[in-house]
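Purpose: get a first structural picture of the assembly so the mutagenesis plan has something to point at.
Setup: two entries, given in the order below. No constraints added.
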Amino acid sequence: MNPPDSPLDVELDRLLGQARAQRVDTSAVEYGFETRLIARLKEKREPSSVWAMISWRMAPIFAVGMMALAIWQMETGVDTSDTTTLASFDNPEAADLWSDTTD
Amino acid sequence: MGAQENDIPDERLIEATLSGDDQSFAELARRYKGRVFGVASRFAQDAGDLDDICQDVFVQAYFKLRQFRRDSPFEHWLLRITTYKCYDYLRKKRRRTPTVSVDALLEAGYEPSVPEPQQRHPDLERLHLALAQLSAKERLVITLLELEERSVQEIADLTGWSVGNVKVRAFRARGALRKLMENQP
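Result (structure tokens, whole complex):
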């Protein structure tokens, strides 16, 4: 470890003192800052970003809903592979036929 | 801006902002932007970065305003956010720029801070290049202590580090800076 008053420390203190005294003129960057800031805040509060935030927050609720639906399907024994039902969407006649049989 | 607006206490401007009045927040920004720009200019590499840091500070202050406990002045709270944003900026910048020698930086035409109208002394240029080589934590502590003349206690309040931690980091940062200066031609 260097002693506190080594020539390098003295030199470093001198340079740090100079840097401390030298303040950067930021007036050009500060000009119109509040206007830009308020515009950015308004942009961040836009409905699109609010909806995006809400939809992400709703994701776990949708996931739970999907799981509940899957469990309900398993419990009630609804067979989703029913070919008659699936065929009814492809063929309108089959759909009519299917509705006739249920009446 | 009139003298009347200057007389409104921060507390009332904060309440009005929380009620949805953007102009009150603009007044708070007008009041304290000088302090925020002053600190951030010690870290920003150019005017664009400086503007980005300062906007990030006030955007965070706006969205976290409800969390401001009001047990200390608004300015102190804002400077804590400023310190964090400057540290975050240094951290991200270091991640983008791998460590290189000072000579390589000079050859690449590196500008160590916000462009200034006056020419810097070559010795001061060496110091700024050495500061740019420090780690984010070292740069933060040495800048706050030596350039902003903050006390160890103030730095602890601004960074959330313990007083002992600030002292150790400041000692190490100075050692690293000295070594970098020593190794320069």
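DSSP finds ten helices and no strands in chain B.
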